[in-house]
Amino acid sequence: MGIELFILLAVLFIAAIIGTFIAFKQEENKMKKYEEEGDTVEDQLRRSHEYESSSLKSNIPLQLIIYSVTIVISLIVFAIYLF
Fold it and tell me: TM spans, by residue (predicted)?
């Protein structure tokens, strides 16, 4: 029972690392694109305002889903550990 729990947690850990790496690469590609296009202060300010107005609509629901899934999986793993 214990080894299966460790394997499940290892798989979740690896999935989290892969997801973080993918997000990092996407942001890195955005920065390269901005540098190639000749990023100005006005462009940065415009993107900042766009991000502030759209982040509540896109990022908050995504984070709620991620946290909900994480909590549910943690409770399932805890229940498996107890029984």
Answer: 6-24, 64-82
Same domain, 72 and 56: yes
Of the candidates 81, 83, 82, 68, which has an alpha carbon nearest to the alpha carbon of residue 8?
81
Calculate mean pLDDT across residues 36-63: 79
Check residue 1 and give its pLDDT: 59
* 55 three-class SS: helix
Residues 61 and 34 in one domain: no
- pTM confidence score: 0.54
Q: Are residues 52 and 22 in the same domain?
A: no
Residue pair 80/5 in contact (Cβ under 8 Å)? The answer is yes
What Cα–Cα distance (Å) separates residue 1 from each residue in 43, 74, 75, 77? 55, 16, 16, 11
Dihedral sign for Cα 29, 34, 38, 39, please: negative
